[in-house]
Each structure stands twice: as C-alpha cells, then as structure tokens.
Amino acid sequence: GRKRSGGGREGRSHDAGLFSSLPLQLFSIVIFGCIANEGYINRPNEVEEYCIFNRNQNACNYGVFMGSMAFLCCVAFLALDVYFPQISSVKDRKKAVLADIGISAFWSFMWFVGFCFLANQWQVSKQEDNPLREGGDAARAAITFSFFSIFTWVGQSFLAFQRYKLGADSALFSHEYTDPSQDAAGAPYTSFGGDDLESPGGGGGQTNSDGPFDGSGGYQRQDY
C-alpha cells in the first residue's frame, strides 16, 4: 500500500519553524538599530564620529552588516516555511531542509565570532574616547543580543534537523509520498470478505440455484 505522511507532525514542525524565526528577526533588528543609531560617537573637540567599539570601524560595520543580513535571511526562511507544504518535488524538499540546516549553523558561527569581536573591542575601549559615556547602553545591548543570537540560530538549526528526521520517517522525502487527504479518496473499494459473493463457490459457500432441480445431487424424494 501507499505510505502516509505524518500530516499532524509535519504541520507542527512548520508552526515551530514560523515561531522560531521571530526571535531571530527581533534580535537582528535590535543589533542593527543599536549600532546604526548610537554606535558612532566623537570627542567634544572633534567633528568626525568614530565607532564606539574602540574606534574600530570594522566592529561597527560587522555588527550592522550582520544585523541587516540576518534579518533578510530570516524573512527568506519565513517565506520558505510558508511555501514548503506546496513543494511537490522530493529533491526540492530535501534541498530546502538541508539549506535550512546549513545556513542556520553558519549564522550560529558568525554570531559567535561577532559576539567575541564586539565584546573584545568594547572591553579595550578607552574612557577618554567617550568622556560623556554616550551610547554605552546601546553597545552593551548589541553585545548581549549577539550572544543570544548564537543560541537562537543553534536552535533553528536543531529544528531544521528535526524536520529532516521527521521527513525521513514520515515518507516526506519518499517517491511514494502522497497527500494524506487524497490517499483515502483514491483508495479502491474492496468487499468485506474480499471475494465475489455471486461467484460459484466463492467465500460464502453458496451454490447456484437458478437451474432446475433434478434430484441428481443424491437427494431422494419421499412420498407422504
């Protein structure tokens, strides 16, 4: 017979993917906003602004780039989660899930690097470069949410791996995969006993009584 997919479990995995991407978008927006709005300061006697992280422009550029690209990546995966149930090709389904696993693991590593980079540059920043202590809360918020982003992307990668295992177990990646709603409708009807009741000697043990009875079957007539 045809294999049925775990429709309910698959639906729950899509819902988990949708909700798990929301913290990723929020964290990336916070990091981008903190550095872009309050990540550049200057001394009272200076006009040009420098990065708040030890005046290292690369630190601010890294944070802004990572925040904006992570947000766009989250939006792309959110659209993929919505479109995923409509993908009928087995190869495309596998590629989508494997891409989710690989890219989520990549972003986990990139946010780990970003957290270490920003934390190190903030630690070695000189107080005389920011005598008014402007933007300190924004810098600490960017570092904190960079740390949180590591684990949220690891969680996203884990959920994608769980979806891959679920797809392998529920025939989601099998060539015999069929829509559960169409599986029952397309199944052929068979009789309860499995045999044709009208056929001679079939199943019910009934004989054909349409012809005349001639008494040749061994039955002897008795007169009363």
Indicate the radius of gyration in whole angstroms.
34 Å
Structure annotation, total helices: 5
| First-last Cα distance | 60 Å
Residue-averaged pLDDT, rounded? 75
Shape: elongated
List the secondary-structure elements in sequence, H or E. HEEHHHH
Transmembrane segments: 21-42, 62-84, 96-122, 142-161
Family: Belongs to the synaptogyrin family.
Domain MARVEL: 12-165
Protein name: Synaptogyrin 1
Molecular structure report:
The protein is mainly alpha-helical and 224 residues long. It has a domain of 155 residues. It is 60% helix and 2% strand. It is built from five helices and two strands; from the N terminus they run H-E-E-H-H-H-H. It has a two-stranded antiparallel sheet. Helix 1 runs antiparallel to helix 4. The protein is elongated, with a radius of gyration of 34 Å. The N terminus is likely disordered.
Features:
single chain, 224 residues, mainly alpha, two-stranded antiparallel sheet, 5 helices, 2% strand, disordered N terminus
List the helices and strands and how they pair.
Layout: H1 7-38, E1 40-41, E2 50-51, H2 57-83, H3 90-123, H4 136-169, H5 180-186
Antiparallel strand pairs: 1-2
Helix pairs in contact: 1-2, 1-4, 2-3, 3-4
Transmembrane segments: 21-42, 62-84, 96-122, 142-161
Subcellular location: Membrane
Keywords: Membrane, Transmembrane, Transmembrane helix
